[in-house]
Design a protein that fits this description.
With about 425 residues, the protein is an alpha/beta fold. It is about 45% helix and about 15% strand. The protein is built from 16 helices and 13 strands. The strands form 4 sheets. It has a 4-stranded mixed β-sheet with strand order 1-4-5-13, with helices on both faces. Strands 6-9-11-7 form a 4-stranded antiparallel β-sheet. The chain has a 3-stranded antiparallel β-sheet with strand order 10-8-12. Helix 1 packs parallel to helix 3. The structure holds uracil. The site of uracil has 6 residues, from helix 9.
Length: about 425
C-alpha cells in the first residue's frame, strides 16, 4: 500500500477500507510511516472527517497497537472518563464508591495541561502517592482493592500516545473522529466492559458549545458500543467550576469531604449521576435510583472513605500526612448584584499563574496553591463580600487576583441557576 495514495484518498473525501486503516496505524506505531505523512493524514481527516466505519476501525487499530489489560475472574469492570474541566475531581471519590458497590475500576487518568486540571496531579499532592507504575503493578493494586488510579504505561494504546502528541503540534486536535478514537482507544485498552463519559460543554471545557459537545457525545457512544464497550455519555455544564475548590491539594481535601458526606451539592450530584449510570450499565442495579441509593449508602457508612484510604495506601500514599495549603488571600466583590458569569477558563489560568498548573508538560507544580470559590452563578452578592479565597505562596497573587476578578460578572438582574446535567446520550436500542 502507498501512504501518499491513502492521504490523497482521504483528502478527496473517500472512505478508507479497514485494511488501509490498519496499515496506517501499524506503520505509524512501528516507525515505518513518518510523522509528516501521519500529520498530513490527520489534517485531511480534520477537513473531510471519517465515516462511522472508519472511526471504528481507526479506534480498534489503536487499541491493537499495544497491550489490553486482562481482568479474568472479575466481572463488572468499568471506568468513567471526563473530557476535562475546572474543579472536576469526580474520579477521586467515584472510583472507591464504585469499588464498594462491587465494581472493578482500573482508572487510567491524565495530568493537567492548559487550563483543565489533571486527576494524577491532584493525587500526587498526597505525600508518597505513586501515580506512575508498570501495568502489572497497577493491575495487582486494582485486583487487591477493586480500584486504582494511575497514568497510562507506554504499552497501552501506544499509537494514540504518538498520534496525540503529533496532533497537539500540528493543529489537528479538533476533529470529532480523531478525538473519539483517541479517548476510546485508551479506555478500551483498560480491558473494561462498560464506560460512562462525562462530556462537558462551556467556557471551562474542551467543547465550548453545547451542540459540539452533543456531537462528540453521540460519536463516543456510537463508536464505543461498536467496539464492544457498553458506553453511555452524560453531557454536563462547565460554565462554572465544579464544587468550591480548584487546585491540587485543595481538591483532594474536597474529595475527602465528599467521601465523608460533607461535599458540595453539585459535585456530589454529578458523582451520583455518573456512578449510578455505570452501575446500571454493568447490571449491578436495576434502576438509576437504586444505583444512587447504593452509592450514597457507601458514603453514609464510611465504607467509601475507607476504600479510598486503602487505595491511596496501596499506591504508597499517606492520606493522614499533612498536605500543605498556601496562605489565604480573600477576593472581595467589586459591586452588589447577582453573579451572572463565572469564566471557568480564566480561573484555570489563575491557577496556572499561581503555580498550580502547567504551561508545558515538563513544568513542575506547586500542589499547595488553589482557589476556593464561594459563589455560584445566580447567587446574590453585596459589595465587599468575600467571593473567593486564593491560596498562594508566590509573587503572582496580584495577577491571580485580577484574573479571578475578571472571571466573575455581576449584574443587577436575577439570573437563573445553570443546569448541571444537560442530558444522557445512550446507545439506541437495537
Ligand atoms: N483527549 C484525548 O485523550 N484525546 C483527544 O484527542 C482529545 C482529548
Amino acid at each position: 500500500m502507498n501512504v501518499a495514495e491513502l492521504i490523497l484518498k482521504k483528502r478527496h473525501g473517500k472512505e478508507l477500507a479497514q485494511a488501509e486503516i490498519e496499515f496506517l496505524i501499524h506503520g505509524y506505531s512501528h516507525g515505518t510511516i513518518p510523522d509528516y505523512q501521519m500529520a498530513a493524514f490527520a489534517m485531511a481527516v480534520c477537513f473531510q472527517g471519517m465515516s462511522l466505519k472508519e472511526t471504528v476501525h481507526f479506534t480498534q487499530s489503536m487499541v491493537d497497537s499495544g497491550e489490553v489489560m486482562n481482568w479474568a475472574g472479575k466481572s463488572s469492570v468499568g471506568d468513567k472518563h471526563s473530557t476535562g474541566g475546572i474543579g472536576d475531581k469526580v474520579s477521586i471519590p467515584l472510583a472507591p464508591m464504585l469499588a464498594c458497590c462491587g465494581m472493578t475500576i482500573p482508572m487510567i487518568s491524565g495530568r493537567g495541561l492548559g487550563t483543565t486540571g489533571g486527576t494524577l496531579d491532584k493525587l500526587d499532592s498526597i505525600p508518597g502517592y505513586r501515580s506512575e507504575m508498570s501495568c502489572d503493578e497497577f493491575q495487582s493494586i486494582v485486583h487487591w482493592n477493586g480500584c486504582g488510579i494511575a497514568g497510562a504505561s507506554s504499552n497501552l494504546a501506544p499509537a494514540d500516545k504518538k498520534l496525540y502528541a503529533l496532533r497537539d503540534v500540528t493543529g489537528t486536535v479538533s476533529s470529532i473522529p480523531l478525538i473519539t478514537s483517541s479517548i476510546l482507544s485508551k479506555k478500551a485498552a483498560e480491558g473494561i466492559d462498560a464506560l460512562v463519559l462525562d462530556v462537558k460543554w462551556g467556557t471551562g471545557a474542551f467543547m465550548k458549545s453545547l451542540s459540539d459537545a452533543k456531537q462528540l457525545a453521540e460519536s463516543l457512544v456510537t463508536v464505543g458500543n461498536r467496539i464492544g464497550l457498553k458506553t453511555t455519555a452524560i453531557i454536563s455544564d462547565m460554565n462554572q467550576p465544579l464544587g468550591r475548590m480548584i487546585g491540587n491539594a485543595v481538591e483532594i481535601n474536597e474529595s475527602v469531604d465528599i467521601l465523608q458526606g460533607n461535599g458540595p451539592d453539585d459535585i456530589l450530584e454529578l458523582t451520583l449521576v455518573l456512578g449510578s449510570q455505570l452501575l446500571l450499565d454493568v447490571g449491578l442495579v436495576s434502576s438509576l435510583q437504586d444505583g444512587r441509593n447504593q452509592l450514597q449508602s457507601k458514603i453514609d457508612t464510611g465504607e467509601a472513605y475507607q476504600k479510598f484510604a486503602e487505595m491511596v495506601a496501596s499506591h504508597g500514599g499517606d492520606l493522614d500526612a499533612k498536605r500543605e495549603i498556601g496562605p489565604s488571600h480573600a477576593v472581595l466583590a467589586a459591586e452588589s448584584g447577582y453573579v451572572s458569569r463565572l469564566n471557568a477558563e480564566r480561573l484555570g489560568m489563575a491557577i496556572i499563574e499561581m503555580g498550580g498548573g502547567r504551561r508545558k508538560i515538563t513544568d513542575s507544580i506547586d500542589y499547595s496553591s488553589g482557589i476556593e470559590f464561594l459563589v455560584k452563578i445566580g447567587d446574590r452578592v453585596e459589595i465587599g463580600q468575600p467571593i473567593a479565597n486564593l491560596f498562594c505562596n508566590g509573587q503572582q497573587i496580584e495577577l491571580a487576583r485580577e484574573l479571578v476578578g475578571a472571571s466573575i460578572g455581576i449584574g443587577s438582574h436575577r439570573v437563573e441557576q445553570v443546569k448541571l446535567i444537560v442530558e444522557t446520550v445512550a446507545r439506541s436500542p437495537g
